[in-house]
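Run folding on both entries below.
>entry_1
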Amino acid sequence: MAYKPAATATTPSAAALFEAHMQAELHADLEATMATMVDDPHLLNLGSGTGGEGAAGVREFYATKLIGQFFPPDVEFISISRTMDQERLVDELVIRFTHTQAIGHLLPGVAPTGQRVEMALVVIVGVKEGKVASEHIYWDQAGLLAQLGLLDQAGLPVDLHTAARLLAFTGKG
């Protein structure tokens, strides 16, 4: 499993920082993950409302909801676009995986369903003094729940796959 962002000609230090941060998360290394962050970070997963505030809150979130639960082994990351400056990095991507394990940051309290998932996601990373200061992560929670069979989309404006598939097909923002 690897997170490979879209090629970019912008600030390499922010890109290298976020790559180190993501690799630490993917390798379930809590200390290395926290070492990439400022002393008072915050993290918010808008789809599920999970996250943490301050070093203790973010550490607790990583320890109980993310590290070791990031994604199942068959996860695919498809990078669509990246936008950066000195203070912010924005990644747009599609993630595909089979829901074979608990994923506390996406689906708190939801037991594995065995269903295949394809979802579009946007990660906005605040950078301060060469470290990750914040992460705001957006996705379509209703579409995710419908794909898992946990939400009846009948009569709802829920797109199960089209948006993520169109993004993955075009491969560009």
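>entry_2
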Amino acid sequence: MRFGPQVVLTKEEAFGACQALADAGRLLVRSGGAVEADTLCSLFVLLEERLMAG
């Protein structure tokens, strides 16, 4: 599989991705998956940083 140099998302897609990560993180914390929630949080922070930079 090959990936292009960038991924382009609409505002709605970016918002949906952030919302899904936040929701999944909360569910993981509630179910005892703190380590997994931290991993999702790192991905959320990365996505947020890229959105702010763009």
